[in-house]
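Final report, results section. Input specification for complex C-07:
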Amino acid sequence: MKRYKLKKNFDREQGQYAIDYKGELNPQQFKAVTNINGPQLVIAGAGSGKTRTLIYRVAYLVENNIDPSSILLLTFTRKASQEMMRRAANMLDSRCSKVSGGTFHSFSNYILRKYAPVIQFTPNFNVVDRGDSEDIINVIRTELGLNKKEKRFPRKGTIMGIISKAVNKCSDIARVLESDYPHFAENLPDIIQIAQKYKEYKHQQQVMDYDDLLVYLRDLLRDNEQIRWKISDTYRYIMVDEFQDTNKLQAEIAAHLACRHQNIMVVGDDSQSIYSFRGANFRNIMDFPQNFPGTLVTTLEQNYRSTKPILDLTNAIIENAYEKYSKTLFSEIPGTEKPIYLETRDEAEQGEFIAQRVLELREEGVPLNKIAVLFRAAWHANELELELKNRNIPYVKYGGIKFAEAAHIKDIISFMRVMHNPYDEIAWMRILLLLEGIGPGFAARIIASVLKLEGELKGLIDKEFEKKKFYLSLMELYNTLARLKKSALSPGEKLEKVVEYYQPLFKIQYDDYQRREKDLESLVRIAVRYTSMEQMLTEMVLEPPDTSQVDVEATGADKEKLVLSTIHSAKGLEWHSVFLIHLVDGFFPSSRSIDNAEEIEEERRLFYVAATRAQQNLYLLSPQLEAPSWGFQHQGYGFSEPSRFISEIDNFDGLTDSWALEIDSDDPF
DNA sequence: TAGTGAGAGGTTTTT
DNA sequence: CCTCTCACTA
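Structure output:
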């Protein structure tokens, strides 16, 4: 780890800075850091010190007496954002921790709560996740009687996907349908109707989904000049990281934010664009200079992360991209180890190899948390996880099903949600269906009764339900909620009481409740941190805790854990040694993208992102896999082919070392 | 109207 | 494989 000396006695009058910018940065980085006014685009290759440039720029601004809270750092993913904010806070001195920033979504949330009335929302609107959105769609679809129509009507998830894509691309449903879902073309009018109702519903219930956060912020800025000016005046220096992952909506927001000063720096890498499935468009980068005349463009090409042999391979990977990129990375980090390529007989062997190799690396002094296993889809690691558990190798897994999306967690959160915003029908529905004897029909009537009283909880125990056998449990629910809502307990304590109330319902609801019980304890532990209910609820959706799914706890002294991560979640991070698994056609690239040229391009960029995470060691693993029964049309006799991204590489054998597994002859098999 | 069980169909990645 | 849907029973 590099150590920075903080020189406390400097004299700014003489143009001296606490940090030796010129000495610690290369000329391109220095140029980007010290040019503080006007629009700027930094095209930064993988490992070229992109984040470093950003945070040095923060320090430089602060040293130039810019108020830290007027500096805004934005990015798309939480991971990247946390890393960026953490490193920024550690620069220079405590002033740097006052910098504003976060993900686009969390920033939007923050601003929208302030200006909620302008867009006809209460400041306690709830934010709903994808699952909740789909539930709302489902209700609407049933209400409109569209589920019984013809058999081929798209399911709720698909409908939500269509609507969301239209929003994120600033397109419309007709166009999305035409380009991505031609087989549902005939359902266009119905889907448009659902989308319209969906919007009304959310407003009526005072909830926003992920997309709304961006849309309403864009609208707020676009339609209110005064507010736009005020916000733009507040954030005088804007920096956006991973700009290639932003979509049109986010680019518009960024432009509005900069309207008063044009002090906006965006950083990105066109060859690492991997979020087009949600409307991200790397052309945002390309078009930036046109949208901001006078943009200073800097390209960072020196890689400070990987050894030369690794970089030679990653350059060869991206060489096959259809679009030719303007930069070639080089590295001065010596290294003799070429990346290692290994075909294994099956998935189990892949897991055994990794487990064994990981332990060896640790023997050699590489801490577990400096080693990562990366994969295309979360379930690719399932078998590996079993192997790691067997061998007691502690690990954390990122990506895949999230803690906050588990049904029992959502149950608890729903109680909190209705206390915070009683118009939240989806949360009510969830709660009421837990009570025995209440199904969708009565649940709807009970909710209506609550809404009639403008959200008064008393609506729960309306005389209408007095004769029903579930009345007693309704009373109990009412008592619990009313008492908690009035009480002065902290959000964490309230949540704990809810968990107590929930226990019996929980045991009836889930056969496997014992497996889930631990999660409830974790949730309570997480909840005590919060002083505000609103913050707790928002963070559960926007920055949900991602640990907790881990079963193998690190023992004793070594707290370090091996990292398992989807490639998407690994973006922007780096490890000493990286294992890339499931490099098999149909898995990576995924069979879903195989007949779409553009998607193949994105998969290749994803492969590139994965390989460029490695500093010293890179292992490429290609097991023989059985084609999933539902998967791609597998040719031949059930033998899978190594990923096309490997076979297409020029001189692959020269760039890598191939290993072959030798099975120990004492092995009973 | 709630709860259950069989069958079908879709299966990535993030906020 | 897991979730959603629909039809059936109580």
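Residues 147, 155-157, 379, 628-630 of chain A lie near DNA strand C (CB under 10 Å from a C1'). The radius of gyration of chain A is 27 Å. This concludes the modelling results for the funded period.
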